[in-house]
Structures are given as C-alpha cells and as structure tokens.
C-alpha cells in the first residue's frame, strides 16, 4: 500500500563526531541454507540512547541481534565498533567489545543461586576458590542499586519468571556494558516491574550506555525509546526518531499491507450477553489451591467469552490451570455439564471436552522435534489412545483444513514445529485443541509475543468460535485485547477474584481502577 | 550441476548417512585385510560365511537394542536388560531340564513362553518404578541390574545348567530358508516393533513424551501408560535375547550370560542416531548400530588384533564413530581443513552457524 522509503542507514551525513555510533552494522546479510534471514540490514547504535528494534515476528530482529552478539556469523557486511571494523566470530568477542544481552527466554541456571547466576564466569576469587561472601556482597549491591528485592543467596529457580528476568538484566548490567541488548524484556513483567525496568534503563542511558530495546508493546517503545530501526521480512525499512513517528505510521511501516487487518480488529467489539438461563457448561465451586489461588467461584456459559484480567501473579493463570486439572485443587470442585467430579489430571478435563492452551508455549505446548501435523493431532490422538491411530485420510484432511483456516506458515505439515515462528506455533497449538472439538476453550496468553497479524487472526478465531457456541476463557496481559473479546470480565488480584461484571463499555481505565482498588498506588499503566 | 550438489547435500544430511558409512568403512577394512571376507557359500543346506556369522551374532544385541531404543526415546534408559536376559535363560533352562521330556518341542515352547512372561513382568516392574514412583530411570533399572543377577543365580542354584533340547538349540544355531534363525527372530521383532510404533500412534506418542513430557501431559497423553509399555517391551526383548544366547551354548551361566550387553545395546542405539536426550528414534538406525557392533567384534578376530588390545581397539573405533556423528566435531574438522593456505574468502563458515568458537 505505502511505498517504503528504503533509505540507506549510512547516509552522507554520518560524519559529525558526536553523532558517531558506538556500534554500526552495515549492510548485514545472513542466510540459513536457502533462506535469506537478513538482507543488507544496517543498524546504528549511539551512546546514551535507547534504540528500539521494531518489526513483526520473522522480520529479522532476533537474527540481527544474534549477529551482533556473535552467535551467528555474518555472510556479508561489516560491523564497526567506534568506527573500527571488528569481527564478532563468537559471543566472547562480542562481549569483549562491551555488548551484553538479555534474551527473551531467560537462560540462566535455575539450580544456582541468584548471586552465582549474576557473576557466573567472573566470580570473585580467593585462594584459587570462589569467594562466596564477596560474590554475594557484590550481587546484593547491584540488585539494590536496581531496586530489585531478592536475596542473592536464594536459588534462582524459586523465583517467578519476572524476577528471573530482572536478575538476568542485573547480570548484564553488572558487566558494565557499553551496549545492552534487551530482547522482549517486558513480556513477562507486570506494570510495576516494567516501570522499575524503565527506571534502570533510563539510568543506564544517562550513563552513556547504548540500549537496544525489542518489544511488541508499542506503548512501551514510545515511553522509553529515543530512536528506532524498523525491519520487515529481513530487510531494513527505515530508521526514525520515535518522537517524529506516530504509532499509526510505525504500524504501517512494520506490517505494510496488512493494515486493514488491524483496523478490522479495532472495530470488532463484542457486546453479547450470554444466555444465563441454562446450565453452565463449566462451574468452579470454591476452587482453590494453597499458595496459588483462594477459593473461587466461576460460571461459564455456552457461547460466551470470559476475560480474565489481572496483573502477573494475580491468580489468572492459576485459575485456568485448576479449571483444566493441570494442577490439582486443594478445595472445591469443577463441575462440567452438571457432572460433579474432582479433576485429577488434564485427561479428565479433555475427556469432558475442556481444552487449555498454556501461557508457556515453549515448555508446555510445543513439541519441537515433531512435525506440525503431529503437533496438531497430538491431543486428538492422545484421547483416542495409541491403539487407534487417526486414519491417514482424516489426518490429511484435518491438518490441511487448519493450516488454511488459521493461515499457518509455512503451510507444510511436515515442517518441524521448532522451525516455526512463535505466532505460527501458537496457531498450531490452537489447532491442536480445536481439532478435539472442545466445548470449553481456555486460552492463557494466546497472543503473547506474536506479531500483530497472527494476533488479529487468533482474536478473530476466538470470536468466531464463541459465536458458534463454544465457551471461552480468555487470559491476556493486554487489557485492550481482553476487553475487545470478552462478554464478561473477571478481574483477579492477589490470588483471588475481586470483581466480575458484564463487559458493557468497560474501559481499560475502569479495569485498572478495579485492580488498583484497595491500594491506590498504581501509576503509569502500561496498557 | 548445482542440483546434483543439493541432492548430495540433502543425502549427507540424512541421519542414517554416518552410521551406514561407518559400517561400510568397517566392512572395507575387513575385505582389505582378508580379500575372502565377503565369501558366502552353501554348506549343509544353509549359507555359510563371515557375513552370515555377523548377522547371527548381531541378533542378541539387536533384540536388546530394539527395546532400548523405545526406552531411550522416552528419555529413559534400561540398565537391567543383561540381568533380565540372564533370568530369562535361567528360567527357560531350568524348566527344560526339570521337564518330563527334556527334548520335546512342547517343553522348549512352554519353557520359553514362561521365561518371556516373567521378563515382561520384570520390565513392567522397571516401568512401575519409573512412571509411578518417579525414580530416575538409571537408578530404577540399576536395581534390577544388580538384583537380577542374584535372582538368576538363585534360579540356577549358582550352577551352570546345561540343556539337551535340539528345538531350543535351534534358536541360536538353526537355519530357516538358509538364514540363521536367531537373525530371523531379531528381524521379526524389528518388524513387530516397527508395526507397533509406526502403524499405531505409539511411536508418535513415545516421541512426544520424550521431547516434552509436560506439554504431552497437558495434551492428554497418558505418559504413564506409555512409559510402562516401553519398559515392559524392553524386558520382553531382553528375554528373547537371553534365550538366544543360552541356546547358542545350550547352557546358562547366570554370572556371565548377557553381561555388559546393555552397554552394547545403548551403543547400538546411539550409533543408530537416536539421541540419549530422548525424542525421535530410528529403528533402522538401531539395526545398523547392532550390525556395526557385531561387525566390530568380528573385525577384531579377522584383522588379527592381539587379544589384549581388543577392548582398546573397540573403544577407539567407537570414539571415531561418535565423532563422525557429532555435528560439532565435523564442523570443527571442516573449518580446520578449509582455513588452510590459499583460502582467503570465507566460503566454508557459511555452513557453520552456531557456536563457532572452535
């Protein structure tokens, strides 16, 4: 639709010394086999600046970052550090140049302590051994300076993902990096933690660190970033100042032609009220679990979408898991179609036509080394038992049908699941459950970390399914999304349900107020 | 021209390329050492020669390795197979000896059936420890690896039991259609395993459980049943292997029968390309792995390695094969070769995308 202005990043005016980038990547190209992952992409990082790297999934952001951190070798192009050409042949070489990274998936060691993780590989030594006390002291100092309240001697794995993420950032900061790369650092953080992170980022920026920020949350980018580089399909679209670009412009640049999808998505407001005269498809009666959720009631009717809103750790995921039997309940029971029965395993729920897609796609959804077709058919096959394989004709039919219906790319049933992008993996997982023809569909963060096109498609599918009579529980950290989709809204906080209301003209502000409720100290909502 | 190249590249990426290559190289070494190595002739109505010996000798390892392949695919391991083989042999032999008509066919059949039933129970015991009690497979099967020897000793009263039953001996030394019965049995079990896993959904579910147990659980896979099944099957396979080994000598020595066969079996599985980390498995790979191990044993004799260097030689070959299969080792080798004099451009590193620290 719009013609892209592909201006070369190293234009004629790259001369003034103050403007000279700390790191400059010029015309970087990388191919994997026959796939051109990056094609002549340039990136300039200046000291004391937060630089957002924007693009949909598959745009090449991660590849570019891995090239910069020496994980991937570059096929063509040059990397300049302070104007001098460097070759980052290994992660070590990149680190030596002052580049530190915190990846999207926390890759620390959960069985070591927080301090050990922060100082792994550079532990303070004494008498040839590790000086544990000095190590803990140093870790504590760094954590305190960042305002992270964690005991450095505690085991990392005990903490929620959000804290682990902050520890990962603390580790990166501890190196005193010149360039800090944050790849989706906020995807598991709640509003408070995001604010805290931004505080740290601003402090580091003022100290002259160049920060690369990758995020799917546009508002966050606008809040924190000074400049941005936009990629699409492995190519550079343009480099812009954030202040000079409207969000609409940015989205246009990122997704190109698919803008109408977004517009359609904004218009779609669900305003049905469910038929509550009948029997609920699923009832939770005083369902609770120690340390996870206080006794909670919930009724779910045919054809309605219940949106679970709440911050991270509010109990929204915990409730979903209990409804499905993924965790066992300590109190109460789940009644499905008037059948009273304690759910002892996911299998019980699945047999009663309940489906659950976990928020942790990688650990609890994707079977990476199996094909797309096997991943799609897993739940159906599991419920049939191994002795009754799905006939080949049915397999082909189902897989083809869902590859098309959900627009999964590549539309290749034999592709390995791990080679798909996050959005497409999510669609395969959705297909896995739709194939079992559930009556209740519980979706925990089905759109997290996926691009806007896939997001719109998944949302549209949810609306379509509920119109056909499926009962849906929809959980998302993005309140707009919850509000757009749900007929009824359940607000969670501090591991219990604090509010339930029909979704009639409820705004994000209203929800935030409900969440803030008792202690009114919420500020700067991220949504 | 480029098309043939990509064809070759694709072939090189096939997971069975390296095991097959290793086997071929080993066979070539043998032929070079003894040009008549491949000779096969008819004798007494059946085929006779080194290759026939190799396939016959590969039977026990292949049998054990088939069960092991499935166990390993679920992220497990079964160390007890050698002991189970010994128990199987001990039960069969004592029952044959104790039977009214020691030489009858029914005696042999009944004894073997009984032995195999016990082996399935023993495998199920392993499965119980792993899937219900959640004990780590290496520990759970270690229990029976140690205890099993004791059980087989108890069954045979610590004596070497010798049997006289030609039907039973035929398991190891007999021929059908000019081929050794032992190998045909092993191939039969291979076919059975293939049908069991690939014609039903068992294979896919085993792989799913091995790759991501939690995701499988949430998808409703009954992983407990599946784990139970594969350990029971592994016990069954080990039992048959024990019968074949005992039939070869018409006797059972509870102390030594099937000793270390678990290690050969694991090796066969790994050489065949199934990862010890679980997940995708290849039965054809396991077949090639078992043939490789049997060929290696024959090679030691054939090329005249002094007997005191037997184990050392075997170890060196195994390391070489493992290095050949490791993408990391291969790429390191390739980089070294291509960064020699006269290669200014960086053409080779394009093949190496990850961890090129070497």
Report on the structure:
The complex is a heterodimer of chains A (527) and B (358). Chain A is of the alpha/beta class and 527 residues long. Chain A has four domains: 1-9 and 18-98 and 177-265, P-loop containing nucleotide triphosphate hydrolases (Rossmann fold, 3-Layer(aba) Sandwich); 109-176, no CATH class; 268-353 and 438-527, Rossmann fold (3-Layer(aba) Sandwich), CATH 3.40.50; 364-437, no CATH class. In chain A, 34% of the residues lie in helices and 24% in strands. Chain A has 18 helices and 22 strands. In chain A, the strands form five sheets. In chain A, strands 6-9-10-3-11-12 form a six-stranded mixed beta sheet, sandwiched between helices. Chain A has a six-stranded mixed beta sheet with strand order 18-19-20-15-21-22, with helices on both faces. A four-stranded antiparallel beta sheet of chain A has the order 2-1-4-5, with helices on one face. In chain A, helix 4 packs across helix 5 and helix 13 runs parallel beside helix 15. Helix content of chain B is 69%, strand content 4%. In chain B, the strands form three sheets. In chain B, strands 1-2 form a two-stranded antiparallel sheet. In chain B, a hairpin with a 2-residue loop joins strand 4 (175-176) and strand 5. Chain B is built from 15 helices and six strands. Chain B has a domain at 57-280. Chain B starts with a helix and ends in a 20-residue tail after the last helix. Chain B has helices spanning 2-13, 17-33, 50-73, 81-98, 105-132, 137-156, 166-173, 181-199, 202-211, 213-218, 223-249, 261-271, 283-302, 310-325, 327-338, and strands spanning 40-43, 46-49, 161-162, 175-176, 179-180, 251-252. Chain B is mostly helical and 358 residues long. The chains are: A alpha/beta (527), B mainly alpha (358). At the A-B interface, helix 11 and helix 13 of A face helix 9 and helix 10 of B.
């Amino acid at each position: 639709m719009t013609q892209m202005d592909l201006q070369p990043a190293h234009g004629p005016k790259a001369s003034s010394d103050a403007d000279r980038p700390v790191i400059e990547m010029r015309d970087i190209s990388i191919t994997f086999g026959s796939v051109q992952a990056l094609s002549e992409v340039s990136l300039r990082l200046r000291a004391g600046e937060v630089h957002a790297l924007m693009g949909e999934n598959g745009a090449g952001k991660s590849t570019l970052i891995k090239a910069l951190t020496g994980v991937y070798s570059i096929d063509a192009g040059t990397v300049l550090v302070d104007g001098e050409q460097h070759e980052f042949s290994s992660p070590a070489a990149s680190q030596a140049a002052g580049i530190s990274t915190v990846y999207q998936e926390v890759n620390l060691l959960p069985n070591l302590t927080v301090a050990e993780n922060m100082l792994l590989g550079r532990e303070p030594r004494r008498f040839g051994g590790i000086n544990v006390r000095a190590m803990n002291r140093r870790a504590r100092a760094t954590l305190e300076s960042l305002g992270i309240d964690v005991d450095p001697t505690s085991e990392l794995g005990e903490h929620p993902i959000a804290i682990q993420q902050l520890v990962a950032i603390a580790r990166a900061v501890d190196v005193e990096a010149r360039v800090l790369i944050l790849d989706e650092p906020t995807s598991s953080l709640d509003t408070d933690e995001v604010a805290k992170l931004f505080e740290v980022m601003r402090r580091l920026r003022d100290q002259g660190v160049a920060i690369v920020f990758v995020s799917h949350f546009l508002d966050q980018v606008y809040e924190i970033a000074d400049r941005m580089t936009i990629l699409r399909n492995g190519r550079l679209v343009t480099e812009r100042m954030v202040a000079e670009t409207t969000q609409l412009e940015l989205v246009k640049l990122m997704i190109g032609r698919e803008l109408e999808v977004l517009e359609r998505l904004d218009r779609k407001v669900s305003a049905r009220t469910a038929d509550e005269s009948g029997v609920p498809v699923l009832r939770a009666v005083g369902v609770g679990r120690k340390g996870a959720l206080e006794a909670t009631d919930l009724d779910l009717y045919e054809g309605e979408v219940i949106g679970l809103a709440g911050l991270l750790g509010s109990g929204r995921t915990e409730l979903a898991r209990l409804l499905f039997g993924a965790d066992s309940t300590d109190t109460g029971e789940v009644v499905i179609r008037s059948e009273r029965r304690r759910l002892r395993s996911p299998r019980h729920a699945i047999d009663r036509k309940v489906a659950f897609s976990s928020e942790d796609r990688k650990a609890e959804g994707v079977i990476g080394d199996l094909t797309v077709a096997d991943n799609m058919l897993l739940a159906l096959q599991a419920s049939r038992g191994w002795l009754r394989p799905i006939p080949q004709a049915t397999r082909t039919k189902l897989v083809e049908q869902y590859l098309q219906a959900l627009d999964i790319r590549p539309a290749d049933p034999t592709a390995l699941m791990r080679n798909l992008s996050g959005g497409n993996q999510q669609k395969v997982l959705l297909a896995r459950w739709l194939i079992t023809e559930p009556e209740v569909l519980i979706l925990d963060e089905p759109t997290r970390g996926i691009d806007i096109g896939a997001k719109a498609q998944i949302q549209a599918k949810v609306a379509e399914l509920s119109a056909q009579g499926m009962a849906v529980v929809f959980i998302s950290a993005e309140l707009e999304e919850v509000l757009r989709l749900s007929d009824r809204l359940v607000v969670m906080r501090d591991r219990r349900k604090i509010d339930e209301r029909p979704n009639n003209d409820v705004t994000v502000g209203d929800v935030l107020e409900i969440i803030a409720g008792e202690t009114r100290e919420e500020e700067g909502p991220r949504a | 021209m480029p098309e043939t190249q990509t064809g070759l590249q694709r072939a090189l990426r096939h997971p069975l390329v390296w095991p097959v290559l290793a086997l071929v190289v080993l066979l070539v070494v043998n032929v070079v050492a003894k040009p008549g190595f491949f000779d096969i002739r008819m004798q007494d109505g059946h085929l006779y020669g080194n290759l026939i010996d190799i396939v016959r000798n590969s039977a026990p390892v292949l049998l054990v390795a088939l069960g092991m392949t499935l166990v390993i695919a679920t992220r497990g391991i079964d160390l007890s197979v050698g002991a189970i083989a010994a128990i199987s042999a001990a039960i069969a032999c004592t029952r044959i000896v104790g039977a009214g008509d020691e030489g009858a066919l029914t005696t042999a059949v009944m004894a073997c059936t009984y032995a195999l039933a016990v082996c399935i129970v023993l495998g199920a015991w392993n499965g119980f420890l792993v899937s219900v009690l959640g004990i780590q497979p290496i520990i759970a099967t270690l229990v029976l690896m140690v205890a099993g020897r004791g059980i087989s000793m108890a069954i045979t009263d610590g004596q070497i039991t010798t049997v006289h039953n030609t039907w039973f001996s035929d398991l190891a030394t007999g021929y059908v259609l000019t081929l050794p019965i032992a190998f045909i049995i092993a191939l039969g079990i291979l076919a059975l395993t293939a049908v069991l896993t690939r014609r039903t959904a068992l294979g896919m579910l085993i792989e799913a459980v091995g790759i991501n147990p939690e995701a499988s659980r949430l998808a409703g896979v009954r992983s407990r049943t599946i784990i139970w099944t594969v350990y029971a099957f592994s016990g069954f396979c080990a039992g048959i292997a024990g019968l074949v080994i005992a039939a070869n000598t018409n006797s059972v020595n509870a102390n030594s029968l099937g000793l270390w066969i678990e290690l050969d079996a694991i090796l066969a599985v790994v050489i065949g390309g199934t990862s010890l980390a679980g997940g995708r498995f290849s039965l054809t790979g396991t077949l090639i792995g078992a043939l490789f191990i049997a060929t290696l044993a024959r090679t030691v004799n054939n090329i005249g390695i002094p007997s005191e260097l037997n184990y050392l030689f075997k170890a060196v070959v195994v390391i070489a094969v493992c290095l050949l299969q490791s993408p990391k080792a291969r790429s390191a080798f390739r980089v070294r070769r291509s960064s020699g004099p006269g290669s200014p451009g960086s053409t080779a590193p394009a093949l190496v995308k990850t961890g090129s620290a070497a």
